Amino acid sequence: RYLGTKGLSDLGRADPGWWTDHQFALDEQNSELFAALCNEMNGKCDFQSNVVLESNLNCYGSCAAGRSPVTGESCECNIDEPRVVRLEPSTLTGTHLSTYYEYIRPQCIQMAFPEEGNAVTVSEIYSDGGAMCGDRRLPLASGPCKDSGGTTRSYCVFKAERVTLDTAKQRCEAVDESMSDWESLGINWDCGTERDNSWLHKKTGLRFHWTNSSCTIKVQVNEEGSVGI
Predict the structure, then answer these.
(1) Which of 21, 27, 76, 180 could make an S-S bridge to 144, C-beta 3.0–4.6 Å?
(2) 3-class DSSP state for residue 167?
(3) Is residue 30 a contact partner of residue 60, using CB atoms and an 8 Å limit?
(4) 224 Cβ contact partners less than 8 Å away, ≥ 6 residues apart
(5) What is the tens place of the pLDDT at every residue in 176-212?
(6) What is the 3-state secondary structure of 82-132?
């Protein structure tokens, strides 16, 4: 979905306004996703309001997640899901400003109730925050890694990146750290786990991280048979 020069999510959880320049950048020369979004016509991008990918695209570029977003190299093959992607200004894009697209998940392809063994707790980063059940197979939260000194922090490829539980664990193992459980996740402005307690920003950005705790989803069924989670 075309966002123009505004690099903030419209349909996902709101982000602080200063995050515009920290979105996931696509490689103009090699990215198949860049080519699909650009829709080149006569040497210039012909941006469409909505772009539906009719087939799977090959990813381009690999890198290691870090304590801050990766810059200067393409990392498409190391993320579970894009969020807002950035096309850098160039002769091809025809603008001196970056162009942004927001990824929209396909509708009605995920069950409301994960199968047994796939429901895992995601915890809000505030000490007084809440928690909820998430499907471990979906990119829903950040991954808290704890080092030998007990410091807990997140690792990311781009700001406010959400990953699956397995990816979160793999990133911890890659730096010889362990997956933290219920400890408060340390502030990481670069990866998006911020704790601005002002009323304006408290619920924006990347709010949840994975835990190692399984959970159970309870439901209510009314007289008409409608189900509420």
Answers:
(1) 180
(2) helix
(3) yes
(4) none
(5) 998 876 656 666 677 877 655 454 555 666 778 888 8
(6) CCEEEECCECCCCECCCEEEECCCCCCCCCCCCCCCCEEEEEECCCCCCEE
Closest to 19 in 3D by CA, of 36, 7, 37? 7
User: CA-to-CA distance for 207 and 130, rounded, in angstroms?
Assistant: 10
**How far is residue 40's CA from residue 83's CA, in Å, rounded to a whole number?**
23
Q: Which of 41, 72, 80, 58 is nearest to 167 (CA)?
A: 80
pTM for the full predicted model: 0.84
Number of helices (H), then strands (E), in the chain: 2, 14
- Which residues on neighbouring strands pair with residue 42, listed in sequence order? none
Q: Sign of the CA dihedral 169, 132, 115, 76? A: negative
What does DSSP say about strands 84-87 and 24-25: parallel, antiparallel, or unpaired? parallel
